[in-house]
């Protein structure tokens, strides 16, 4: 029987072993290629483009503080850049990932790297350039020039395919229409083994 995320979280909290950050990083990256391939296979026949982006995001769990999740998905355009995100370019004809477009660190590290007076080790120069472009608002231009690609961003992609999307049944939302979330639908029966009330 497999342990639940909560059980693993409690076990991790009791562990007093000191781990090296580099060792943890390597362990987290061990099976990324397997998950990237799974995501590619799921989206290969859905995305009608010769090249598309394969995205990995590292996200913290809002209820279990020491749990980190890796999420994998694909887009037919350049996704919006965000902290803790890696984006790869997949080519259908070659059936392989051809480029690592970017890999952004956490928001705190991005902010530190983007500082004007900081000089970084050579291996962090590209990450620093991505971070600077992110904060300057020139991310797409930088990535396209750096990677020698002309792929559209999400907004540009939807503008280009607007008519096709409308014909396919997508509706343009009315600016004045918003549906408020009904918080009365949320209920908690019981809370089990939480370390912090949220």
Features:
single chain; alpha+beta; 8 helices; 4 strands; 198 residues
What does this structure look like?
There is one protein chain. The protein is α+β, with helices and mostly antiparallel strands and 198 residues long. It has one domain (31-170). It is 36% helix and 17% strand. It is built from eight helices and four strands. The chain has a four-stranded antiparallel sheet with strand order 2-1-3-4. A hairpin with a 7-residue loop joins strand 1 (51-60) and strand 2. Helix 5 (125-136) packs antiparallel against helix 6 (139-147).
Layout of helices and strands, plus pairs?
Layout: H1 5-14, H2 21-29, H3 32-43, E1 51-60, E2 68-75, E3 85-91, E4 96-104, H4 107-113, H5 125-136, H6 139-147, H7 154-160, H8 162-167
Antiparallel strand pairs: 1-2, 1-3, 3-4
Helix pairs in contact: 5-6
- Helical segment tally? 8
Helix content: 25-40%
Radius of gyration: 20 Å
Average pLDDT taken over every residue: 82
Which percent band covers the strand fraction?
A: 15-25%
């Amino acid at each position: 029987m497999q342990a639940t995320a909560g059980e693993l979280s409690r076990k991790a909290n009791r562990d007093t072993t000191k781990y090296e950050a580099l060792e943890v990083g390597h362990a987290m990256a061990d099976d990324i290629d397997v998950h990237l391939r799974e995501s590619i296979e799921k989206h290969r026949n859905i995305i009608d483009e010769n090249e598309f982006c394969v995205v990995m995001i590292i996200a913290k769990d809002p209820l279990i503080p020491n749990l980190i999740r890796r999420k994998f998905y694909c887009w037919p355009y350049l996704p919006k850049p965000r902290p803790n995100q890696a984006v790869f370019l997949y080519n259908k004809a070659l059936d392989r990932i051809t480029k690592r477009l970017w890999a952004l660190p956490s928001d705190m590290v991005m902010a530190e790297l983007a500082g004007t007076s900081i000089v970084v080790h050579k291996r962090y120069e590209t990450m620093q350039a991505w971070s600077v472009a992110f904060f300057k608002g020139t991310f797409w231009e930088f990535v396209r020039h750096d990677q020698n690609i002309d792929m559209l961003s999400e907004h540009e992609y939807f503008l280009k395919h607007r008519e096709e999307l409308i014909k396919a049944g997508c509706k343009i939302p009315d600016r004045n229409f918003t549906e408020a979330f009904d918080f009365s639908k949320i209920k908690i029966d019981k809370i089990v083994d939480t370390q912090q009330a949220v």
